[in-house]
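[job 0412] stage=complex_fold ligand=flavin mononucleotide status=START
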Amino acid sequence: MTLFEKIRCLLTFGQGVALPLPELTAETVPTELFKQWFDDANKSGILLPEAMSVSSVSSCGQPSARMVLLKEYNEEGFVFYTNYGSRKSQELSENTKVALLFHWNVLQRQVRIEGTVEKVSPEQSAKYFHSRDIGSQIGAWASHQSKALSHDNQLKEQFEHYQALFKDKEVPLPEFWGGWRVKPHYVEFWQGRASRLHDRLCFEKQGGNWQHAKLQP
Ligand SMILES: Cc1cc2nc3c(=O)[nH]c(=O)nc-3n(C[C@H](O)[C@H](O)[C@H](O)COP(=O)(O)O)c2cc1C
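[job 0412] stage=complex_fold status=DONE, emitting structure tokens
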């Protein structure tokens, strides 16, 4: 964050921008509004505006949530990358229902997304994987995400093993690593307002088309 962004972040903390929600037409799709809000969050100086919570549900109905980073979004969905052997990936493979949550506190905004997941293509995962720094690429090989460590040095040893193995070579995309695309069927925008008279605007996909409605806060 630049100094200017930090000062703006401090000065506006808790105030929010409280801009009115845009005028909507029957053709408005949630991705348009998400883009405006995501751009605002990027400009606001918030640290990691792309951080979002992703919730999965186990086969016995236990929900669990963790933060990940949004890497791409478009009308198809919202993409994040992870280890396909991790707890979240195992749960998402068994139950594709998923929820995402963004909270941009300085802007007093929240976006809730519900949908289903699918894996992105290995080509798309490889493209993103190779855009990461070498340390992160080797780190993806070294970590059996969500599995127990057998001893304290295990991660360092595994990292050094792969560092030596891929020395002076392109690090290949691990088969156990890639992206999940969340295809939304519900997107809700929340804008904080005075006296708790917050705006809530929800979009729901019905018969392939987005319908929108305003909800009481
Ligand atoms: C701000 C933030 C961003 C994160 N981004 C990612 C990410 O993009 N992918 C990922 O696999 N883990 C990410 N993590 C770590 C996850 O929260 C989590 O610890 C990890 O994915 C293992 O989760 P699981 O055992 O439920 O699968 C991030 C954590 C934080 C706090």
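The chain is about 30% helix and 35% strand.
[job 0412] exit 0
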